[in-house]
Amino acid sequence: MSNPTDKNTEKQSPRDLSKILSEAQLLANFLNAQKSTGPRTESGKARSAMNALKSGP
Length: 57
Known about the structure:
Blueprint: H1 14-17, H2 23-35, H3 42-49
């Protein structure tokens, strides 16, 4: 007997999403993802590392 809460726990694969999204939207998502790589330089990495810090107690 299977657990009823397991029915919708599977994540959709990118192939499943292609049925939902248009080809133009998939291309736009892919191109945008290429830009989202985070900081590349050491100074950028150091600056972004400070984002998590909070000021004083």
